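Example record

Each entry pairs one chain with its bound ligand, FE2/S2 (inorganic) cluster.
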Amino acid sequence: MSELENRSQGSGHGEGVAQTSTGSAESHGALGDTLAAREGRGEQGVSPQGPNPLGDPGLPVHRPRPTDVDPRAAKRAERQVAGMFVVSSLASIAFVLAYIFIPVDSTILGIGAQNVALGATAGVALFLIGIAAIQWAKKLMVDEEVVEERHDIQSSDADRAEALEMLRDGARESGLGRRTLIKLSIAPALGLLVLPVVVLLRDLGSLPKDDLKHTTWATGMRVVQDGTGKPIRAADIPVGSLINVQPASLYPTEAGKAYSGPTEGEVAGGEDLGVNASAKEYVQNTRARSSAILIRIEPGATTVAPDRATWNVGGVFCYSKICSHMGCPISLYEQQTHHLLCPCHQSVYDLADGGKIIFGPSARDMPQLPIMVDREGYLVAQSDFTEPVGPSFWERGRT
Ligand code: FES
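Structure tokens for the complex follow.
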């Protein structure tokens, strides 16, 4: 019997809470059988502490390692580990020698020779210590299987009774049972505490009402170039091109004149926003919701719904520029396919087919603005968009 076997069998774990399992195959098999019998392997067992709800946990029978049963194998493993420690020591010494004796500017294959030597020796020294430690643990350190019994998670009856008694004491000492006035007044005091929180929600601003359903586009409003405010004729738009446009109300009447913002009167007239907006905010909000694109599609390439037959002017279509997914502005137009691609989440709309959504996360088609020409031949809106533009919102309908 090896020293390890002696140690394991004399460790005193055999009968109680823990089992030491190093030993001969036979003795270990006997131990496994003893455990199986005690734990009720294959059926619901009964341990000395009471019924074992797990029965057989399915652990394989422990097998001793060669180094546990063969002293020569153990000696061989010991020599391997010691050898690695010795080589690691030599590598550490070599590291110091390399640092002292290899000139800093010498090279090997164009690389600093000293760096190579230092890296290699330090690497070997550390690597061998690691491997030796693993070998030592796997082959030579004591190989034990220990059973650890868990105590009940539930508190003892005495602790639970004590906790309940403390709660009752608290209630008794507060006098709540006898103080009827306090009992009646504390509930509204605590309940009404939420009111200030609700009232503060008012600071989020006024309700949008139906502002989200409308833009500033209106019957007869000219379609002008974004940036310059120049009105556009249908003939000015080449087939395949896309132009960013805005309603003329955002621009001064004299085309080309620098925009200086709406007057106070215009802001007052723009109360459709439903907010007390400054002139700048008014313009930004109006521009954000009214942004549109004009495209011209070659004849015969479009699919126009009967109720939209009069919404285009000779193949010139006007669509909202605001993605109906989460509101990104879009200008990525592919003239061969007539697809409009949103760069944010890749929604794709077919502008030759009423702005239908054909790919991506958006759940709605791109709204189309009905357009016509005025007496001077400029493009104007027939009306506002017939449905809300931009991202969906919970009250969104088609009106
Ligand atoms: S905002 Fe356009 S796809 Fe999401």
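Residues 323, 325-326, 328, 342, 344-345, 347, 360-362 surround FE2/S2 (inorganic) cluster (CB under 6 Å).
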